[in-house]
Design a protein that fits this description.
The structure is a single chain. With about 400 residues, this protein is of the alpha/beta class. It is built from 14 helices and 12 strands. Helix 1 runs antiparallel to helix 9, helix 2 packs parallel to helix 9 and helix 3 crosses helix 7.
Length: about 400
């Protein structure tokens, strides 16, 4: 095998290349008309009123936390089974992230544990459920917990563009939340190279998100706080603008947006391919007879199938995960672990976080492995990997 097959890979074609070239040949390079078109396309697709494109999924999480009003000392609950950005965004805003445990069969936040945690201590300002691997959380129950706690709900849907809730609405419609965050990193459902987006149905949040991504400068018809500077002799000073709060340079470029738009036009095909690959993995490993079990057995709604995770009872020596990953690597396959639980990272460990009250998260981490799942994975390559996965475990 000449090239290694990784757990994921972007899918670009000549349409994507041409979309970027077209931008490079015209007037706008930084934020311009393509950004607005991309925002509108995503908003229409998911069924949300508003969408705000930014430079990364992490930037989207950050400004969503700020728009939710998270500030010094505020509690926000999320999943430890996620990339660090799901908690870092709370820290950026000055808040205190907390972690609830996950369900064994979905690997998503457990609503019962979330409810118990939200009911103790000071008021919870926000709940940030993570749609792990693209599988929607139980958002109806999470929304109920949030309503009881008076908390804002920010869906971390970095994995889940293309997913649907059981009711049929698309992830991103904010049917159960105040805001939803997407990522357009190269291995996600679609890519803009780097990039992210926040969707919402609330105009107040939309307007603040716009300001926060652009240095805190007034947008659209925001009222001027210094009208005596904005007008002269009753006429508006065309050069005038105001920085009304501390914002950030989180703008998406037209180059990124053009790539994102081109990718978006293929999303239905991408989702169908991912779904087919995931179904074949479930058929191959569903009974667990080989010692390999499917990571996400049950779920509510349709997954975007960003990741496919298997679980194995690893041990020491030749039975270790390290040894197994090496054997697969020698056969031409690059696997990965998603994720090192956030409390185990040195930064969070120094703050006193542990997995002591997260037994399901700890159990999952010891057993998980992400295997190849991407649009360009050929059926023959998948069959060969399935055989290798079983043989390397024997």
């Amino acid at each position: 095998m000449s090239a290694k097959i990784s757990y994921s890979r972007h899918a670009l074609d000549e349409d994507d290349v041409q979309a970027v070239v077209n931008v490079l040949r015209h007037s706008w390079l930084t934020q311009g008309p393509a950004v607005g078109e991309f925002e509108q396309a995503i908003a229409n697709h998911v069924g949300a009123k508003y969408a705000v494109a930014v430079s990364s999924g992490t930037a989207a999480l950050h400004i969503a936390c700020l728009a939710a009003g998270i500030s010094s000392g505020d509690r926000a609950i999320t999943s430890a089974n996620s990339f660090v950005a799901s908690a870092n965004c709370v820290r950026y805003a000055g808040g205190v992230p907390e972690f609830a445990d996950i369900e064994r069969d979905t690997l998503n936040l457990d609503p019962a544990g979330l409810r118990a945690q939200a009911a103790t201590g000071p008021r919870v300002k926000a709940i940030i459920p993570v749609h792990f691997g693209g599988l929607p959380c139980n958002m109806a129950q999470i929304a109920d917990v949030a309503a009881s706690a008076g908390a804002t709900v920010i869906e971390d849907a970095a994995h889940a563009l293309g997913g649907r809730y059981p009711s049929g609405e698309r992830v991103g419609s904010c049917a159960y939340s105040d805001m939803t965050v997407f990522s357009f990193h190269p291995v996600k459902s679609i890519t803009s190279g780097e990039g992210g987006m926040v969707t919402t149905n609330r105009q107040d949040l939309y307007r603040r998100l716009l300001r926060l991504r652009g240095h805190g400068i007034n947008k659209a018809d925001d009222p001027y706080q210094h009208p005596h500077h904005a007008y002269q002799d009753g006429k508006f000073n065309r050069w005038y603008y105001e920085m009304q709060e501390l914002g950030f340079n989180y703008r998406m470029t037209d180059i990124q947006a053009a790539l994102g738009l081109s990718q978006f036009r293929k999303i239905d095909r991408f989702m169908a391919r991912r779904s087919g690959l995931a179904a074949r993995y479930r058929e191959a490993f569903g009974d667990g007879a080989s010692g390999i079990r499917v990571g996400q057995k049950n779920g509510l709604g349709a997954s975007a199938n960003h990741l496919f995770v298997i679980r194995i009872a690893f041990g020491a020596g030749a039975r270790s995960r390290t040894a197994y990953m090496q054997r697969l690597f020698d056969r031409g396959y690059i696997t990965q672990v998603h994720y090192i639980p956030i409390p185990l990272h040195p930064y969070y460990a120094r703050l006193g976080y542990t997995l002591e009250r997260l037994p399901e998260t700890a159990r999952y981490y010891n057993e998980c492995l992400s295997i190849p799942l991407f649009v360009g994975l050929a059926d023959s390559q998948q069959r060969e990997f399935i055989n290798a996965a079983v043989e390397c475990l024997a």
